[in-house]
Amino acid sequence: MTENKMRKYAVVDLEATGAHSTAAIIQVGIVIIQGDEIVDTYQTDINPHQPLSEHIIKLTGITDEQLAKAPDFSQVARDIFELIEDCVFVAHNVKFDANLLAEQLFFEGYELRTPRVDTVELAQVFYPTFEKYTLPDLSELLELELSDAHTAISDALATAQLFFKLKEKIVSLPKETLEQILDLSDNFLFETRMVVDEVFEKSRLFAHEKHQLVGGLVLQKASSVQSERHLSEDFNVNMALLGLESREQQSEFANLVEQELDQREVSFLEAQAGLGKTYGYLLPLLKQAENTQIIVSVPTKVLQDQMMANEVKQLSQVFQISSHSLKGPRNYIKLDNFYNSLRNQGDNRLVNRYKMQILVWLTETVTGDLDEIKQKQRYQAYFDLIKHDGHLSAESQFYDVDFWQLSYLRAESSRLLVTNHSYFLERVQDDKAFAAGKILVFDEAQKLIFNLEQFSRRQVNLTQLLQKTQKCLVDQRPLLEQRLLEGLSFELSQAVLNLHQNRQVRLSSDQIERIGHLVTELSLPEVEELRDCFNPQFDDFWLESQEENEKRTVYLNAASDAILDFNALLPETRKTYLISATLQISPKVSLAQLLGFDDYRYVAIPKEKRPNQKIWIDETMPGVDEVSEEDYCLAIAERLLKLESLDKPILVLFNAKKMMLKVSEILDKWEVRHLTQDKNGSAYNVKRRFDRGESFILLATGAFWEGVDFVNPDRMVEVIARIPFDNPEDFFVKKISNHLLAECKSPFYDYSLPIAIIKLKQAIGRTMRRDSQKSAVLILDNRILTKSYGGIIQKALSEEFYVSQEKNEDRLVELAKFLV
Motif DEAH box, which positions (predicted)? Predict the structure, then answer.
């Protein structure tokens, strides 16, 4: 036998009285591996001679009564030491298990000096696209047997299976990739690299049919395009082929999409949330327009990824539809930059671990979309360094395999192209041919007015810019350039000072003129973004301060007072659809008018109330204007604590991030398990974790109001913290108000209130996506009951939803009965 075959690994898991270094061991599970086999197992309880906390009892299922009968550690120390002393110590988070066990053995006279291997780090590197690396998460993703999580022997057996999976994954990688990983593998914790060293000998050079070697990097080859299968003329048959059951309203909507295809005008189609609009427009268009590319634009990248992972993936698998997700260049890796970062190996262990992760990812990704790496936010600065800037030298060794360039080309040849509103606007402004003659579908079209506003703005990080100008001033420069830089630095510093000292948010006309003149005269690349801000199209400039990573950052914003004409941006298309659950903002204001359309068709599918969804308004909640924000957050948290007893998934929607984080802080203090958007990951990440049942409570904001669907839960509670009114001080809200006042319309009743109602309706529709689901919605904002406009909100909600009119102190009983 070779030395590697003789090497033994002891996979260890401990349960303890806590996660701290002074915790006492209460259970030991050990699995001995030799070669590719489990050759021995060991398990025992340990009496810690102290009561367990409720948390540990609930987590492990171990009781004080059970441990009272268990041996002391001193009675089993020798058995444990002799079993593992000649092994490599393997654990999931090896630092905790190895340190705790070694310390306890030392107290009994045994010195454990075994090498250590951490399966968490190995999993992070060799499964780069996973979001979470806990043992339960990995067990689900890799189909490991974990029958009794947080029981030592069960966790040890699952970790042993993970260890086998990791070795299989490592040996499957090209030898060239493993060589590069070994160059970086001293950055693994402890002796973890020895696993890669062992497996390396069995690895093979890259296979030409699967991979390609470019500039020393092994890249995945794109799969060949398969012939598209014909769709049926019958929408219901196509849904059945997808393994789905169509609904009456969905089928009606699909027929409407098909009928509108031959109409010359732009079609605004209004259809109730939750009827399955995506398949409703994709299937008839893919069938009826076989020789025309379909471009679907959705509001956010989160929804874009969601659509690609669900509906588009299903269509590609069943009907072989060639599809592509197109984003801006900054979403893709630039191989030149990554290659250069490999050559400049620094001493940052986390960055070097990411380099290993990316080397593995490059053997698997076809898109090069960095969003596939879910944990990149832990060191965003490195990913900013390697992301694409939209420029590519013809001299680049990666020119023919550049992901952004290939994405651009793939977008031209795909039958179905999915993008987001922001990128669509950016692209079509520079290249109208991109959309000319195509079929355009704008899903969640009501978001276009906000995307247009963001598109018509510019923003510059003034804090960073001032640092850059100070660095420039240190260098020797021509006298005129030096004077201009000094003048610019002074003006920007004064603007920031006025913000902090005098709360002066807007730049004066004199400041605008002086800064505009200075940036026009300066040709330095450092001020290019600022120069773009002072383009003649912008006529309003203001500062805002944000706290980021415990640092205060000041931004300069530039915008135009005019509302951007979306219609004028569009080229001549074969057909354009704008689809939403609500297109008529109010009797006097429509989305079509705000987007600049005079000639259009408006068709609506009649709305139906669904008996499986009901709304309650909490009249016992304190008034928004009557208590402090802190007390209001406390009241929200108290209600969530009660709702937790329903044992159902709870989505909590906030209109402001600050309030969301305050409620999360209270729940943390009360040790209520929950997920919070941004705090526990991106919107996409926390949504997937919530869907997997990692927590029953999800606190969310932003995209969750209008575009994130909850399809999985059969029973669900949705809590809306406040009526989602827009901030009246927001620049865009003021712009719309001025526009409506000029037309003798009411900014509040003709726009702000209807927009809030639209957001409410769309949010409520997010948790009712299947006929078999039941969704209970609790609105905490009692202004619906106390304010004069509350009746308008109640009436609007009652048109589509069942709203409880009963006044009952015990909402919990009502909700529980409804969710049976």
Answer: 443-446
Q: How far is CA 560 from the centre of its chain?
A: 30
CA 719, CA 659: separation in Å to the nearest integer? 14
In contact, 596 and 566? CB cutoff 8 Å? yes
Cα separation, 243 vs 552, in Å, equals 51
Amino acid at 123: A
Closest CA to 616 of 377, 797, 400, 435: 797
CA dihedral 212, 218, 223, 224 (to 10 degrees): -10
* Contact call for residues 222 and 366 (beta carbons, < 8 A): yes
Q: What is the 3-state secondary structure (H, E, C) of 500-568?
A: HHHCCCECCHHHHHHHHHHHHHCCCHHHHHHHHHCCCCCCEEEEEEEEECCEEEEEEEEECCCCCCHHH
Query: Band of the pLDDT at 303, cuts 50, 70, 90?
Result: confident
Q: Considering only CA atoms, which of 145, 177, 140, 141 is closest in space to residue 158?
A: 145
Count of C-beta atoms within a 10 Å radius of residue 609 = 13
The structural domains of the chain, with segments of one domain joined by +, span 3-178, 246-322+414-456+570-608, 458-559, 613-818
Contact 635, 623 (CB under 8 A): no
Strand ranges in 609-731 using DSSP code E only, listed in sequence order: 613-617, 650-653, 675-676, 697-700, 715-720
Which residue, among 116, 50, 41, 115, has the nearest Cα to 80 in the 3D structure?
Answer: 41
- Look up residue 238 and give its amino acid: N
- Name the percent of the chain lying above pLDDT 70: 97
Please state which of the four CATH numbers 2.40.50.1020, 3.60.20.40, 2.60.120.10, 3.30.420.10 is assigned to the domain occupying 3-178: 3.30.420.10
| CA angle in degrees (0–180, nearest 5) for 700-768-268 | 95
Q: What are phi and psi of 796, to 5 degrees?
A: -65, -40
pLDDT at 615 > cutoff 90? yes
Architecture of domain 246-322+414-456+570-608: 3-Layer(aba) Sandwich (3.40)
Please give the order of strands across the beta sheet that includes 675-676.
675-676, 697-700, 650-653, 715-720, 774-779, 613-617, 802-803
According to DSSP, the β-strands at 774-779 and 802-803 are: unpaired
What are the residues facing 33 on neighbouring strands? Answer: 9, 38
Q: How far apart are the C-alpha atoms of 806 and 818, rounded to whole Å? A: 14
Alpha carbon distance 697, 145 (integer Å): 27
| Cα distance between residue 9 and residue 154, in whole Å | 17
Summarised one tens digit per residue, pLDDT across range 35-53 is: 889 999 999 999 999 988 8
d(CA 246, CA 235) in angstroms, rounded, equals 8
Residue 277 near residue 765, CB atoms below 8 Å: no
Residue 370 tokens read as 């960095």
pLDDT of 549: 55
Rg over CA atoms, the chain: 30
Strand, helix or coil for residue 43: strand
Question: Using CA atoms, how far apart are residues 297 and 54, in angstroms rounded to an integer?
Answer: 50
What is the Cα–Cα distance from 72 to 520, expressed in whole angstroms?
A: 78
CB distance 499 to 505 below 8 Å = yes
How far apart are alpha carbons 422 and 330 in whole angstroms? 13
Residue ranges at the known binding site for ATP:
271-278
Q: Which positions make up the binding site?
A: 271-278
d(CA 275, CA 248): 9
670: which 2 tokens?
A: 């009360």
Fold of 613-818: Rossmann fold (3.40.50)
Return the closest-CA partner of residue 730 out of 497, 582, 557: 557
C-alpha distance from residue 704 to each of 303, 649, 652 (Å): 10, 15, 10
State pTM to two decimals.
0.76
185-239 per-position pLDDT tens digit = 999 989 999 999 999 988 899 888 899 999 999 999 887 777 889 999 999 999 9
